[in-house]
Design goal:
Elements: H1 3-11, E1 17-25, H2 30-42, E2 47-55, H3 60-64, E3 69-71, E4 77-84, E5 95-104, H4 118-121, E6 126-129, H5 132-142, E7 147-148
Parallel strand pairs: 1-2, 1-4, 2-3, 4-5, 5-6, 6-7
């Protein structure tokens, strides 16, 4: 195809549907900050919907500036990419996605963290950690080495 055709195709492509899920939002935690910055930076590139279970600090208001926000009540979710910032509060069998990604935000070498059950781990296609130490701890506990993408910086 001539360059003009590629340019037309690029600007008329449908954005992939991305659901970003988090179980329990508080006012200013690390995961909440990641979600807000990620959505702010990526909403122009993806058709994002933010799905949550509990909002303890009215944090969804900032996210609603960029994308639709939906409370999870056990409903079926359909998307191209499912990005879970936690595995708590959602049944993966209610999610239909081409790719399911679990973000690892904690250092799993700590004995105080609750274990993911093997059936939850098995429902994800990919794992991404926000630091080398969280990736290492996850590998030690589950035998899976996540890719590392460091926390985003708001610009």
């Amino acid at each position: 195809y001539p360059l003009k055709s590629y340019i037309y195709i690029y600007f008329h492509m449908e954005k992939q549907k991305l659901i970003v899920y988090f179980s329990s939002l508080s006012v200013c935690g690390g995961v909440e900050t990641f979600a807000k910055i990620f959505i702010k930076q990526m909403h122009k590139h993806y058709d994002i919907t933010f799905v949550y279970c509990i909002d303890k600090g009215n944090s969804t208001k900032e996210i609603e500036e960029f994308v639709p926000v939906e409370k999870y009540r056990g409903q079926e979710l359909f998307c191209d990419i499912f990005l879970s910032l936690t595995s708590y509060g959602i049944r993966c069998d209610t999610v239909t996605a081409q790719v399911k990604i679990l973000m690892v935000h904690a250092n799993y070498s700590s004995p105080h963290l609750i274990d993911y059950s093997p059936d939850i781990i098995g429902k994800y296609d990919s794992f991404v950690a926000v630091s080398d130490s969280s990736a290492k701890g996850f590998k030690e506990r589950y035998g899976i080495m996540p890719d590392v993408i460091y926390n985003l910086v708001d610009v």
